Amino acid sequence: MTIKAKMPLSKTIALVAHDNKKKDMLEWVMYNKGSLSKHKICATGTTGGLIEEALNIKVNCFKSGPYGGDQQIGAGIANGEIDILIFFWDPLTQLPHDPDVKALLRIAAVWNIPVACDRASADFIISSDLIHREYERDVPNLSGHMNRLKK
Ligand SMILES: O=C(CO)COP(=O)(O)O
C-alpha cells in the first residue's frame, strides 16, 4: 500500500562518495554545477567538504560516513527531507561501515527515491526532465501498515 508524496521543484540532493570514488564525484559535480546550484545539496562530511571547496557552494554536511553520516542521510530520506541520492559507493573495497552503506541503499529503496550509484546513472537523473519540475512519487503508507498489524 502506497500513498503519494510531492517531489518539490527544488529538490534536496544527497551526495555521497567513498574514497576511491571521490575524484569521480568531484568531476561529476563540477560538470553539473549549473543544474546542482538550483537544488539544495547535502552530503556526508568528507564528500561535502570537498564539494564545498570545489564548487564554492553551501553544502549541508552531515558526519563522515563511517561515523554515522550514512545513517543521518538515511534518516533524512525516511523523514521525507531528501529527494534524490547520488551515492558513488566503492564495489571493490571492504569498508568497516558496510552495514551502514547497505542500510542507506535499503532505506532509499523503501522510500522509492531516485538513486544513482555510478556516473552513468547520475547523468540520467540530472538530465531528466523530472529534475526541473514538481511531480508525485509513491511512498509507503504507514497507517496502512499499522492497520494490518491490528487485524
Ligand atoms: O563513507 C562514506 C559513505 O559510506 C562517505 O563518507 P565521507 O564523505 O565522510 O568520506
UniProtKB/TrEMBL annotation:
Catalytic machinery residues:
70
Choose one Gene Ontology CC annotation of this protein and give it: cytosol
State the PROSITE patterns in the record.
METHYLGLYOXAL_SYNTH, MGS
**Broad enzyme group:** lyase
Residues binding substrate: 18, 22, 44-47, 64-65, 97
Q: Does the keyword Lyase apply?
A: yes
Tell me the protein's name. Methylglyoxal synthase
- Its source organism is Elusimicrobium minutum (strain Pei191)
